[in-house]
# Entry
Amino acid sequence: MQERIIEIIVYLLGEFQHNQIDENYRDLSKELLSRGYTDNEINLAFSWIFNHLQKNNSDTDNEFSYSQGSVRVLHDLEKLVIAPEAYGYLLQLWHLGMIKEYEMEDVIERALAIGSAHISLEDVKSIAASLIFSSESYLSSADGFFYHNGSNTIH
# Structure
């Protein structure tokens, strides 16, 4: 389920960035529901975004804009193992501000540690989701809510 929430977050951040949405979240929720996502998944995604923005309140104008810095280039061995669409997805997460440079490196290292001859998009989605949600303290603290893997229960 974490991967599906990440998909929603990526979709929403893309919409916020490209369409300058004037806070019409109901339409976005309806669109996501029509794509097969549940209310719980949508609510968790919105919550992550709002909590993330609140934490980084000092720089909200540039929070989800593309960075002017350098981009991590894959080593030849990494290129052989990591699928291009998986690396593209990782770059998208970085550009949207969902992960930082060192977290991107961590995802690549974890992917290579799997020991597989081919790291797919689904593999990277799973690794990135676990990294993103494990670093979010509000998911496991009394300050917000937490999510139990395998259920749609929000506490």
